Amino acid sequence: MSSVEATLNPIEDCLERIATIHGDPTDLVYKRLFEKHPDMRGLFLMDRDDSVKGNMLAQVIECFLDFTGEKHYATSLIATEKINHDHIGVPAETFETFFTTVVDTFRDILGDSWSAEDETAWDRLITDLNKAVASQ
Question: Per CATH, is 3-134 categorized as 1.10.490.10?
Fold first, then answer.
């Protein structure tokens, strides 16, 4: 293991592997989301070039990294976005659905290389992030 790999937390490591295997996972995340929750497709009718989807996933990933690191802004940003999304009719529980969809997609991308450490790290992250945001 190189010194760079040794400094990565399990979430960063997982994201690096996903980037290497698939590149940008936006297409797969939203494909899964819309298959499981077709009603959510209507929330993106104006996103004709998928830029909103890509930006939203990028922000979520940045929040994941912040929350597993310095915790400067992740919980506040997600709490704020829950309020913003509520104003357009998106219920708060949709965030947990989206987080779970992201992790399920990542697990599929990594396939057999998804480890018990990955599962534990992502489960802990999503659980802790949901609790932190709920307490805001």
Answer: yes
Measured CA distances, 10 to 6, 14, 69, 103, 115 (Å): 10, 6, 11, 13, 10
- Give 7's pLDDT tier (boundaries 50, 70, 90): low
Spatial distance between the Cα atoms of 11 and 49, rounded to a whole number of angstroms: 28
| Every domain of the chain and the residues it spans | 3-134
Q: What are phi and psi of 37, to 5 degrees?
A: -135, 70
**pLDDT tens digit string along 46-68?**
999 999 999 999 999 999 999 99
Q: Which of 134, 132, 124 is nearest to 11 (CA)?
A: 124
Structure tokens at 132: 């932190």
